Structure formats: structure tokens, C-alpha cells
# Entry
Amino acid sequence: MLFDQSTGKQTKLTPLSQPGLYGCSQLQMPVLPGHRYRLLAVMPSKDTLQAYCQLPQQAARIDSIAFGERYKDTFSNRRRVTLSWKDVSEADKTCRYFIVSQYMFEDNLLVNAYFDQPVITQMGQRLYFINDVIDSKLPLTFYVMTAEPTLFTFYALAQQMRDISGSGASDFFGGYTGITPTYTNIQNGYGIFGGYLKTQRQLTFP
Amino acid sequence: MNRFTSLFLIALWALTAQASAQHIAIHCSVYSRKTDSPLAGASIEVNKHRATLTDEEGYAELLEITPGRIDLSVRYVGYLVYRIQFKATRDTSIAIPLIPFVQELAEVTVTAQQPQPISLAGQISFSQRALQMLPSIGGEHDVNRNLTLLPGVKLANEGHAGLYVRGGSSDQNLYSIQQVPIYKYSHFFGFLSPLNSDVIQQVDLYKSGFPARFGGRLSSVVDVTLRSPSLDQPKIEGSLGILSSRLLIEVPLIKNRLAIMLAARRSYFDIFTRFFQGSGTTDGPHYTFYDLNASINARLSKTTQLNLSAYRGQDRLDAGAFNKLENLQFDQRWLSNLAGGRLVSQFSARLSNILEANLSNYELSQLTNQQQQTITTKNHFSNVIKTLTLRNTVELITSPTHTLRMGGQAVRYWVEPGNLTFSGIGQSMNVSLDSTRLLEYTGFIEAELRGKYLQGNAGMRLSQYGFSDQTYGVVEPRLRVSHRIDSLSQIHFSYDRTNQVLQLMSNTGFGPPVELWFPPSQVVRPQSAHQLAVGYSQSIPLRFHSFLSFSVDGYWKTMKNILSYRDGFSAQDFTTFAQNNTRSWENLVTSGQGQAYGLEFQIQKKTGRLTGWVGYTLSWVRHKFADLNQGMPFFAQHDRRHDGTLSLVYQLSKRWQVSGNWLIQSGQPMTLPVAVYSSPQVNFVTGHFENYYPNLVIYSERNQYRMRATHRFDLSFQRKTTHRWGIGVLDLSIYNLYNRQNPYYYYLAMGNQLKAVSLFSFIPSLSYQFQLYLGNRSSNTL
# Structure
């Protein structure tokens, strides 16, 4: 069961295509800024799973998107793109940000997600995301996901775990500097229950 | 004042109040009649059954002497034997001028039965001569490496800096050079000491029983005394090696008044790595270190001496990656600068005063420079700590067996945990994070007893420090007592209360060490500890007047407010302009408690052709943090259940010496994956689950497993040669003789196979030490 504790609304999650996965649509339970949600899973002869999440009060707004001159690397033409937006953290609640970009092909979607912290640079209240992207005539959309910190921490740790599992110790200079413990906010279980707010800006290179 | 404190004051009073009514003391000051300089290490014998050696100031005292006729003789290499007979009915001070003789003698070996002195609880001392007798590594008789061979002292895994004393962490050691604290006390990622062994006069390690004059750290004191430059003759000595070279020069500027010592050391690693650099797309990594020492010794009058000293040490690691599109450079430096002055005034035979002022700076800096096309971004981070100390100590010899020492100090700390500069994106920015100034006032008093059957030091240290408009006070009672049961055995006891204002955070991974010093705050409180230690030592007579010394010590230590990074955080979260860079460092760390206890055993042979020791430590170190490991206690990363060492030196002949170290210790605790699971991937744009990560892992409890045991054998051969120009020693040493692949870290390879990576395998090295004859040959130390 999923509860919106801010409105008292509740809905039952239904099985999805993969075995063991349950979900609901935003029509059944809209994700709204500042709302607090509760997840409850009751299983016969098992401990009850329970978790809470509190969404950020507002989504970050991309207020500047700039790109540089075209240059050529080994495989393709590229441009450097810089996004900037204002931090919307509250005094006692820190917001964290994911960046996702995608090109819209005719019938295909290419998505890049960036979770690592260093690619987002913060100077004062402003945050910057710099990336070199393929110079294409296709529309390029950038999404800034304003996430609650637990969700971000989970994905950052999951990224570290994948790094350890996959490439192990290849990054000597410190991408990974400590053993990553299991991180969860699920009572009696493992995983994460979190939410994020999405804003987007589209860009087309000349 | 609590009851515990009162008990210590009573003990302190009792130690000072005892009087010696039936015996007298003889105070001797031995100096060269030719140069007026004090003679350290001169042998003084009274009535043919009491003997002692002079200290570095040429001073010695013989206690518990029966009044009456005194038959006193003094011996020193290169000088005529001095004999005097006199009658003494009360405490007597005598100045003894020794006359040098010019005849050069053949080398002789002297074996004598020395009275077994009472050893002090928790304290181990090495003189420079003793250091030279210890096995060398790469031609260096390295202090830190040899300290780690002692029971109760451990080095972290290869590649990690720091000493770990009786369960304490690497920041809990007060490492001082001429009483000036040094914040980074190693070179080459902890492999070598911060200064070259030539400049060292003596090293005192206190594992417990800390005199009250020392404070500011929880677990140990390593007090390095530099040798005083000779006032009467110049000296040049040094070493040429394939890993590093060093040079020391002593020059009397005004004979018998003013002398200067300059010493320098530099490693060659970077030269080798640049020489063998290919034409690829990476540059390095290159590593180098150097250290410089300077010391000026001025005799202002017969009773006043001034010593000025300075030290600078730097480690640097740089690397780069470049291609047609990108040029990336990384440069990390650890820099220490020390300067100090020490004015010693001897007002009378019983009263002296030491006034000290010193500066100690430490800076860690990281520079990342990325150039891509015409766009350049720079990220510079620095962590800085500066301390200014002013200290005065008065020493009063109240009776032949009692000394009272009291003093006070004021310390000003400037701590800048982080200074970040970023330039790029058409703008630049500089941010100073949590910069703090802290003022600490300390007063201390020590009462020292040196009786025939009982020795002790009771003291009290009171400190007050203020920050953020608040003032805090700490009371630190200290006590150590050694009791001689009979002529061959003794027992020890000590209690220490210690506090530590400054906090060090080190990364625990395998990357280059990033040690960040932080000030205390409203959230992160100063660390504190209690330590109780008891010990028993026994001398076992052997043939030819030599002894075996056996000792066993037990300790129990509790620590409060120790720090650790929170799960998922590391130094990188503080050193870069990442998303959280405006957040306080306090959010990256969490504080907890520690508990350490263990037993230390040592059998040592100090005289004869074969010298050395066997040591073994059985110990436990547990930490407990509310925010880590779900609040359950876990073994600290430096916990080692078993730690054994064997250190031997054998004098093959007059010229040849062979030495070896073998050490073995339990593996380092570590956290490992215990289960594999699959997880779906979320498409953040659509909000749908898409792909599966099939091989994600769940980790064990923190530090639930251990790496495999570490052991290795180091071997060193030395051949001494004499020439017209001086003395030379050729040193061939081999680190890790049987090429043991000791684990540095583990990782999960393909197929969920656990693999270990090792750092230092078989490393041979060759060096040549030399000492030039520029004056009296008898003063050579090689």
C-alpha cells in the first residue's frame, strides 16, 4: 500500500511485468512537491516492510543552458554544454540532483544518466553541470531531477557498488575511497523508497 | 575537583615530600678542557660499584651515595681517565674537565656488567648510537620503522601512513621534533620517518605513563631530540643511496660559542619514473620527498644555552593523462614547516628554566587541472593547520631523589579544514570552509622520584581552550610508578587521562592518503581517553656478564569521541566542488567510542655480538558508533590480534655486521560482500523500471572479515671501512627478502572472485654512508 500522508490518500500497488515488482501510476497517486509518502508491504509469515519519503518542496529550474563551439574527437563532433540552476535546498533539508539527457531519434530513445557527484559543480547557491555531448541536429533534452538526499545517497552508493563489483580498484586516484555499506531506508528490508521532482529544458544545436 | 583528582594530588605530594636523610648525591658536569664543550656519554664510577653515564649536556647525578670518602673516576673515549678522591658529607657538585689525548687507538670491544637500571613504565628510548645498531632499510636506520618493531606499536598496511600505539589511531600520537609538534610524521606513505636519522640525538617513545608536560594527544608521545651541533669542530657526514641520499654538515661559527648544523635528504623515485617514462598518454605517477633540517646552538654563557631549529619536509605525488583532446594533471603535496627556539638557563645546580617558542605548519594541497580544447578548469583544495606555542618549564631538584617540574604553555591554533578554489566556466571562486581559531592554555606540574627501589612520576595537567565564544576545561591526572622487587625484577603501574582537541580524518581506501585536520566544534567534541597499564620485567643473567631482559605489559584503554567518516563518505566529499561543498564537514563524519586492551611480551638482549629482541603483542581494538554498523561494535581497521617481531643484529667481525627483522601480524579487518542480488534500473525520465543489474552485492557487517596475515623478512649487510679521509659504511639491504605478497587491498573480480593486490615486494637497495675526518677522530659515530 502507498499512502500520501499529506492528503490521506492511499492506493494499492499492483503487479508489474517482472515477477516480484509492484507499482502504480501517477494518476492513482500523484507525486507532489513537499508531500510525505508511506509505503507498507505486508507478507504472510514475514516481517512487515515499511518506509517513508519526503519530497523536496520545489523542483530546481534550469535557468541557463549554454553550449560551446563544435570540436572533433576521435569518433564524432562534439560540443560542450553547461547547465546552471539555483539550489532549492531548504535550511534543514538538503536537495541533491541527478542529470539525465536524451536524444529523441525517430523511434528510438538514447538516454544518458549522470549520478556521480563531481560532474555537478556547486559555487555558492548555483550549480553547474558541464558535459561534452555529440553535436547532432536532433533535439537534446536535459532533465534535472531534484531528489531527496536518501534517494541520491542510495544511487550514489549503488554506483560505487557497481564500480567495486565491476572494475574493482581501477581508479587509484580516488573515485572510490572506502568500503560501501548496505544502505537502506526500508524497515525490515533492503532497498530505497524515495522520490524526485523533474524539470527539463530542450536544446537544438544550429 | 573530584575524588580521583584529589588522590593524584596526594600521590604527587607524597612523591615530593619524601626526603633522603641518610644518603647524599653527587652531581657531575663533565666537559672537554680543550673545547669547554660538554661530553655526553662519559662513564662515571663512584667507589667502584656505582656507575652512570652523562646526558647530552654532560651532566650526571649519582644518588643514594653513602657519605664519607668518595673515589670517583671518569672515562670518555679519546680522553685521559680522570680520577679524584675526596670526602663528602652532604650533596656535592663537581665539574670535571677531561684532557684529550692525541694517540689513536686500535678499535677495541669492551664488555662490562652494567648495573640494571630501573626501566620506566611505558617508555622506550633509542639513542643515535642505538639507532645505528638497528637494521637499516635502504641505508636508513629509520626511526618509525624500528618503532613499529616494538610490542604495542603497529604500522598500518603497507602504503598507509601512521603509527598505531596500543589501539590508538595514527592521529593520536604526539610526534615532536625538539618539542615542536609535527602533524605529518612520515614520508613515502608511511614507509619512512619524517627526518633523516643522522640528525637525531635521541628518541623517546611513551606508550603510557605520559609525563604531565606532554599533552594534546590520546595514545602516545614520540619525542625526537636533535643532536646539538658540535661547538669545537666541523663535521660532514651523509649517505649516497639508490633510493635517497642525505648530507649533514656541522660548522662551529664561533669556536665553543656558536655552531650550526644543516642537513638535507631527498628521494630519487621521481627521477627514476621520469627516466623510464614512455611516450604513452599518461605521465606518472611521480613521487618524491625531501626534508631539510637546520639547528643553531649558541652558548650564551656558562649557564645559558640557546638552540634554534627549523625543519621543512615535503611529499609530492603528481600524475597526468593527456591526448589530442584533453590534458589532465593531478598534483598532491604534503608540506610541513617547523621552527623553534629553546633557551635553557641553569640558575644553579638545582634550579633550571627552559623557555620555548615554536611554530608548526602543515598543509595538504590537491590541484586538479583539466584542459580540454580551449577550456581549462582548475580545482585546488588545501587543508591547513598552524600552531604557535609558547612554553616555559621550571625544573627544581628538591633532593637527590626528587625533582619538581612545573610550567605553562599557550597554544594558538589556526585551522582551515578546507580552502577551495575553482576556476573555469568563465569565472572563478574561492571558498574557505569552517576556518577556526583556537586558543589553549595549559598548566602542568610533575613530581619525579628516582629512588633505589621506587621510581615514579606523578603529575597533573590542566588545560583550558576556547572557541565559538565558549570555554572548556580539562583535567588530566597522570601517574607512573616502577618498583624494584630485587636486583633483577621490577613491576610497573601507570594511569593516564588524555584529551585531544584536534581531529584527523584519513581516507580508508587504497588511493593516495588524504589526511585532513579539523578543529573541534559544537557537534564534534574533543577526544578523550583513560589508560591503565601494569607490567613486570625480569633480567636473566647470562654468561660473560650479559643479560636477557624479559618484560610483560598489559593495558586497558577506553576512548571517547573518536571520529569516522559516515558510510558512503570520504575525503573526496570535502576536497572538491561537488554538490555538497557548502555543507559543513561535520555532516561527513560521526563520532563514537573505542576500547583497546592487550598484552605485550618482549625478550631483549642488549649486549654482546648478538643483540636484538623478540616481541609479541596480543591485542583487541573495538569501535562502536551509533551511526555505523547499525550501532553494533566492530573491530577497528588497525586491529591486529597477533603481532610478532624478531629483530636481530650480529657483529660478524670488526667490519661486518648483519641484521634482520622478521615480523608477522594478523590480517587487517575488512568488509566483504556476502551476497549477490539483482536490482531493476529506473528510467528517471519515464519513471519505469527497465533493465536489471544482475550482480549487485550485499556487504557483511563492518570489518567482519580479515585479510590474510602479513609477514616479511628484511635483511641488511653492513661493511665498515676506514680511510685516511674518514669512515665509510657500505650497506646492502633487502626489504621483503622472500617476496611475500602482503595484501594491500582486496577487490571483487569477474566471476565474484576475491583478488588481493600487493604493493611492496622484494626491494633491494644499496647505500654508502660516509663520515669525513675534519677534527677529532674519536667523535665519529659510524
